[in-house]
Amino acid sequence: MKTLLNIICSKKVKYSLILIILLSIYIFVSAISYVMAVSSDLENSIFRLHVIANSDSSEDQNLKYIVRDNLIAYMNEISLDAKNKKEAIEIAKTHTDDFYNIAKKTIIDNGYDYDVSIEIGNFDFPTKHYGDISIPAGYYDALRVKIGSGKGQNWWCVMFPPLCFVNVSSGIVPEESKELLESELNEEEYSIISDKSSSEIKFKFKLIELLQNTNILTAKK
């Protein structure tokens, strides 16, 4: 009798463990699918700027910010009519030489002779916060500007929709930029990057951030 009970209990434990494992796999796969969908939509909606300083000296870091400001001002000027990321990238590609000339002139005008490289590609970005908008880590299409040896600290922002601020201390995202971003995402996706009050939304953002930062999903295009 005891042997029979042991067999039955053993089978129940075994089945329970199998169910738990299957449920865990299902939850994990569902989480990955969810994160991939959100990340893909974000990456397909955003064009970013990545500026790398020559070094970490205070002078080179200050130069980086001056170059950044001039490039942002120019991008905002030429991309006023851009309705989506694809249009913004095409505009940037058309004006690559102008970006180079602006950056180079800024460097010379500030008393330096560093070279500068301009590249449009797909690059790895960490999680970044822009006012009340937060963009999770991942690979994003971007205009990358490397000043001199490019061994200094990076600066990241979003060129389209325009979330870069020349006066970054304001921390205020223009309503027009939010509307452009919201039009590219579904309601839940936009909530994930803009809603700081909901514990459920915070959890989803952290889930995306965790899976991206552990490189489970991150893959360069």
Mind explaining what this structure looks like?
- A hairpin with a 2-residue loop joins strand 3 (128-130) and strand 4 (133-135).
- This protein has one domain (40-213).
- A four-stranded mixed beta sheet has the order 2-5-1-6. It has a two-stranded antiparallel sheet with strand order 3-4.
- The model has no long low-confidence stretch (mean pLDDT 79).
- It has 221 residues and is α+β, with helices and mostly antiparallel strands.
- The longest helix is centred in the first third of the chain and has 42 residues, at 2-43.
- The protein is 54% helix and 18% strand.
- The chain contains seven helices and six strands, in the order H-E-H-H-H-E-E-E-E-E-H-H-H.
Entry keywords:
4-stranded mixed beta sheet; 6 strands
Task: Write a compact overview of the structure shown.
This protein has 221 residues and is an alpha+beta fold.
The low-confidence parts are none
Instruction: Characterize the largest beta sheet: strand count, sense, and whether it forms a barrel.
Output: 4 strands, mixed
Q: Helical content, roughly?
A: 40-55%
Question: Into which percentage range does the β-strand content fall?
Answer: 15-25%
Counting structural domains, the number is: 1
Q: What class do helices, strands and sheet pairing give?
A: alpha+beta
Average of the residue pLDDT scores: 79
Output the radius of gyration: 23 Å
Shape from CA axes? elongated
The SSE order reads HEHHHEEEEEHHH
Number of helices: 7
In what order do the strands lie side by side in the largest sheet?
2-5-1-6
Total E-strand runs: 6
